[in-house]
């Protein structure tokens, strides 16, 4: 065999044996597959990209369109480089918009002037660029913040908060929409839903700013609103929590009514309540978001009003008031059995930063957080604040995270209970200067995952050890071109993965009587085997690992020539006995030809053979075989 055939995989000499494993043995091996915790197959990996105050993007106001777009592409490229699979981008930082919203003005963080048209649609651009890299795009909205100052006259004249002064209040030097006014809540939801319905976002994300964080000596000026709308509540705190609950619950309903696949998530403050206040709380002694900003995040989980929660666990391991390890365990218990996914909000901004606790001067601190996570199967990923700190990589702390935990890509954890799409069918493997390109027939799936590993490995897709990457296209180039079988699975918009499979075996194992040729341009891969007919059993065998007993479509590829055999016997090792199908190899070459659909047993064994035992004249040819799960 040539080098290409070896690259295309299939480690044939290791697979072929006189006695292939039985179906029972294969099933037992599959059941024994133990995922490597360092290479999880499913893990949400993202970073927050902040637009407010030009924290991350744009880096400053007034950049040209091309400069803004180049900067944003660089953030996405960074995410890909760090093997992330999502970004969370702030598109409504201060009751304004990074898209042409009919509800709110253009954000000042784009041009420097609130209401100033940037000359393009940033949200449409950002979603398209993220999806081109198969990154999920979660649109991040700050629900109530109007301005980081308290002067309404500085708002653009058309701003709804300026036109409706009764909607807002000033507190702590900032302006906020009043969460207690039903009209305001409807308006905020409408503004968010405009982005959801008009753009192909994958998620809606709210941050931790609900009612304002407490300011010493100040009181939230909503007593008149409470008097007007607080009927049925004996105290203002319960009423405020209900206002926030209504926003969360109604947004959840409206988002999923419009687009069922869009995820709804919140990144609340990391402490709900302390156990000293509430026995259901955590063993912490910090600010309680339930009491201070009226965010009952535990209830959102228990009621199923969110798809995921990303508590901001911005403390180090062993912190006296809020230990990361303690809070990770507490939040894991909260989501257990609810169907709500849990991701940890990670303080990348603390690593190596001056003025931080000495623990954050240890380059291993952030990586150690992810080791703590491994003890909690409910913890399904991490989100880092913020993008500029991921890029800064102070002390090499984030490089340590990547080396220790992100050595392989990961699929996003599946959301909901939708079915998986049909499995794709590999159509070709092509060697080029950039590596081996795997192509397949699309199935209308949202994306595809590509694996490469030993064909005999029943644990090929157990974790990410063999995962090469994902794409929204129907081809993928493997630059490493290592040995192994290629496997492609299909993923739905909510990341359910096709359980079926399709495998191409390019080149059989055969006796010395079979020659090797690259003469025909119709060959699959680098070469093929050929032999003269003989009245004896000397088949060239194609082995494959069949994952489960079931119905499979079997196809073959061969070059055609008038001098080849007109009745070549193909032997299929079907359940219940072998089946023989005769093909005329004088015609129909250079394409996949179906032998039919057969019930195959699970296991790794010689699935298809090309026999020399035929009365017809002319060479018999053995080139490639494709086995695919039947729809």
Automatic annotation (TrEMBL):
Gene3D superfamilies referenced in this protein's UniProt entry, alphabetically: Glycosidases
Stretches of the chain forming a coiled coil according to its record: none
Signal peptide: 1-19
Domain called Golvesin/Xly CBD-like: residue spans: 510-627
Keyword Transmembrane on entry: no
Domain Glycosyl hydrolase-like: 44-362
Keywords on record: Lipoprotein, Signal
Name this polypeptide is given: Uncharacterized lipoprotein YddW (UPF0748 family)
